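hey m, so remember when u said the tokens were messed up on ur end? i reran from scratch. heres the input so u can diff it against urs
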Amino acid sequence: MIVSTKGRYALRVMIDLAEQHADTYVPLRDIAQRQKISQKYLEAIMTILSKNGFVTALHGKGGGYKLNRQPSEYKVGEILRLTEGTLAPVSCLECGAKPCERVSVCRTLPLWTELGKRVSGYLDSVTIADFMKKD
């Protein structure tokens, strides 16, 4: 499993929003400047996060983005699954994958299955609150 820039940037954006005042909308250009991410690329990421209810978007003057939940309620695993599509270490374990013809004789399947469980377990045990700046 390799996490793409989309997944990494989505985490950075969510942490950035968490560190801002929860009752105000944060302009996209401000996030882009702080995170040194292209505003155009950030727009695509924010569309995904907004359409899936992770953030609220307000367009126009005074608009921007804000989190819909408390930072401690956002699991890193759910953000990465949304942006990456899967956390499976091998394609045969991806959700909806065509059944592998070697499943009954695959000697390494237990390895990949356990790795997937451990990766998912860890990513689901940490939240964006865990990565916020501490005062």
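this time it looks ok to me. The two ends are 34 Å apart (CA to CA). if urs says something different then somethings off w ur setup not the seq
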